[in-house]
Write a structure and sequence with these properties.
Blueprint: H1 2-11, H2 47-54, H3 56-60, H4 65-73, H5 77-81, H6 84-108, H7 115-122, H8 125-157, H9 165-181, H10 184-210, H11 237-247, H12 256-259, H13 268-296, H14 307-316, H15 320-335, H16 338-353, H17 371-388, H18 392-395, H19 401-418, H20 425-448, H21 455-482, E1 496-501, H22 507-519, E2 522-530, H23 533-549, E3 554-560, H24 566-579, E4 584-593, H25 606-617, E5 621-628
Parallel strand pairs: 1-2, 1-4, 2-3, 4-5
Helix pairs in contact: 2-10, 2-13, 4-11, 6-11, 6-13, 6-19, 6-20, 7-8, 7-19, 8-9, 8-15, 8-16, 8-17, 8-19, 8-21, 9-10, 9-17, 10-13, 10-14, 10-15, 11-20, 14-15, 16-17, 19-20, 24-25
Protein name: APC family permease
């Protein structure tokens, strides 16, 4: 019973069975202690390196999350700015709900996938694809926004680089991609120091600022026009809702750890949960601390200077510490793209496993790298950077909508997951509240940013879902034709005929005929004859030499009126198949393989032409014999 079940399971995914490139997870030794000295675990994440590799997006969001709140409330004047702290506290409460919810997601779905895995089990296949599509869009946009924001900070400090910002963006993207191709652990180690410097700098800024009764410096904002609205005394619910939705951009990246649980060392779920809690604690402290300082210093938004820069100026003074904060922010913003490189390839692997993406995305290299997912993310992100001209403002309106959709579906799915479980009423209420808040945020952000580019997300989501379903239907048709999941008929022996295309007599020809005689019951050599006098002479000479050589194999001449090589061979194979329907036909194409890679450009590529024509126009087996020239 066990053997039959295993055969059926593997038959449904024939190209995803474990290979030398991707060792099965069951073969990896457990590593409870986290030493990671054996097997693939040494290429996986600990809780600390997981925090560095997968939380950069969330950590960097403190550079623009509080500012997004302030900019919305500034429309109501100084009175509106007084609501900065209450709005931030509401966002911090939602952060707590999300962290608690994603801890549950990690425990319930240790194979990763986050909202996609939750929705797939509890909300249906179509809804799960919406969750997956929203995450894919968010991850791709996160890379583009992170890189452009980091480069924008650089060009603000060095304006002469502004004209080269696209090339700088592409160079940063290439560097991050190269690090991730070496493995997620290497990327985590590379980004651990910048993450630590940024977090420590922000915490020091907050601690020093809380000890001050007034700003120590306002030099950063001097000479810059205020964007504060006319003095107003009424702050409506809609304005507060817009500020809350805008500030929720600081929550992007909270889901990344739950999406990439398989990247952690064993016990994976526990390590991922520890990383999730640490992320929530650090992010919450930074958001609330910065908001307290905004209210404490009565800070007002100005053009050309970020809120975080003003806070650093007010707390630390306009000195070297100010520049450390700015430089650390710039570096972390650029590197926060790494969150996508850690989470998206795992999501693509799960989609490929479920036949919604090409199976190549499920392959894993020897350093636990989903190389094809990393390269695909880099390629799409590079296209976005070029199309946007490296401009952050072009991309920001598209950002965060996708992750809100994912948040909402994950929370809703966890409500259903907990339904019927004793003592789970509190968790269900918590998840339900989170789903309501993130759902409202998604609607508000989409509505307010629709004309600024959010309509692209509204269009892209259903298109991406349709693409997933098209791939799934294609795999279903292929599986039906191949009889996947069913025990096939017993194999039988059929008469075999091997066709060997030749253009001359050489050691290569002899090797090919020897191999053909080993493969089939009958062997025939074929040569294509053209009508040109020069070609007729060559064919006559080949025929005479063939008779003198007498290899024991007939040489068949295939006349062709056109200067083509593959079609006459394919036509001959089709004719043979029609005359002898029970015969298995194999076309063995001999090719010389040079000893040096550069010498391949010296080849005439005839073998590739014949192979393409036979594969396209016939059902014959194509076998390409490589004869290495040592």
């Amino acid at each position: 019973m066990t053997t039959r079940a295993t055969r059926t399971l593997r038959a449904t995914r024939p190209d995803l069975t474990p290979t030398a490139e991707e060792p099965p997870d069951s073969a990896e030794p457990a590593d409870p202690g986290g030493a990671g000295g054996a097997g693939g675990d040494r290429h996986r994440l600990t809780a600390l390196t997981g925090l560095a590799a997968l939380s950069l997006d969330a950590m960097a969001s403190v550079a623009y999350g509080p500012e997004a709140i302030v900019l919305v409330l500034a429309a109501a004047g100084a009175h509106g700015l007084g609501f900065t702290l209450p709005v931030t506290l509401a966002i911090a409460a939602l952060l707590g709900v999300l962290v608690a919810s994603y801890r549950q997601v990690i425990a319930a779905f240790p194979d990763g996938g986050g909202s996609y895995a939750v929705a797939k089990k509890h909300l249906g296949a179509r809804t799960s694809l919406v969750a997956a599509a929203s995450l894919v869009l968010d991850y791709v946009l996160n890379v583009a926004v992170a890189v452009t924001a980091g480069v924008a900070a650089l060009t603000s400090a060095f304006p002469e680089l502004y004209g080269d910002r696209v090339w700088i963006c592409l160079a940063v993207l290439a560097a991050i991609t190269a690090v991730n191709l070496r493995g997620i652990v290497d990327s985590a180690r590379a980004f651990l120091v910048p993450t630590a410097v940024f977090v420590v700098a922000i915490l020091v800024l907050i601690a020093v600022g809380l000890l001050r009764s007034a700003p120590v410096s306002t030099e950063a904002a001097a000479g810059h026009a205020s964007v504060l609205g006319d003095s107003a005394t009424t702050v409506g619910a809609l304005l507060l809702l817009k500020a809350f939705a805008a500030g929720c951009s600081a929550l992007t990246g909270v889901e990344a750890i739950a999406n990439a649980v398989p990247s952690f060392r064993a016990p994976r779920a526990r390590r991922a949960q520890h990383a999730e809690i640490a992320l929530g604690a650090v992010l919450g402290v930074m958001l609330i601390g910065l908001s307290v300082l905004i209210s404490r210093f009565h800070l007002q938004p100005v053009e050309g200077v970020t809120v975080l820069a003003q806070l650093a100026d007010a707390s630390l003074g306009h000195n070297w510490a100010f520049y450390v904060v700015q430089f650390a922010t710039m570096i972390l913003l650029a590197l926060s793209a790494n969150t996508s490189f850690g989470g998206l390839p795992v999501l693509l692997k799960l989609l490929a496993r479920d036949n919604y993406l090409p199976h190549v995305f499920a392959l894993k290299a020897d350093r636990q790298v989903h190389r094809h997912g990393v390269l695909a993310l880099a390629a799409v992100s590079a296209a976005l950077l070029v199309l946007s001209g490296g401009d952050t403002n072009t991309l920001v309106p598209l950002f965060a909508i996708g992750v809100f959709v994912g948040f909402t579906l994950a929370q809703t799915g966890m409500v259903l997951h907990r339904r019927g479980t004793p003592g789970s009423l509190g968790a269900m209420l918590l998840n339900g509240l989170g789903a309501l808040l993130t759902g409202v945020s998604a609607i508000v952000v989409t509505a307010t940013k629709f004309h600024d580019g959010a309509w692209l997300i509204v269009v892209a989501l259903p298109l991406l879902v349709a693409a997933f379903e098209a791939v799934h239907r294609a795999y279903a048709r292929i599986g039906e034709r191949l009889g996947l999941g069913r025990i096939p008929d017993r194999p039988t022996r059929a008469r075999s005929l091997v066709i060997v295309p030749v253009s001359g007599i050489s050691r290569l020809t002899s090797e090919a005929l020897t191999a053909a005689n080993s493969l089939g019951d009958e062997v025939r050599a074929v040569t294509v004859c053209h009508a040109d006098p020069e070609d007729r002479e060559r064919t006559e000479a080949l025929t005479r030499d063939w008779d003198l050589w007498n290899p024991g194999v007939d040489l068949v001449r295939l006349p062709s009126e056109r200067r083509t090589l593959g079609r006459p061979v394919a036509a001959y194979v089709r004719a043979l198949a029609a005359r002898e329907p029970g015969t298995r036909v194999t076309v063995l194409i001999p090719e010389a393989e040079p000893g040096r890679a550069w010498q391949r450009i010296l080849q005439n590529q005839r073998g590739a032409v014949v192979a393409h024509a036979v594969r396209r126009d016939t059902d014959a087996v194509v076998c390409r014999l490589r004869f290495k020239l040592a």
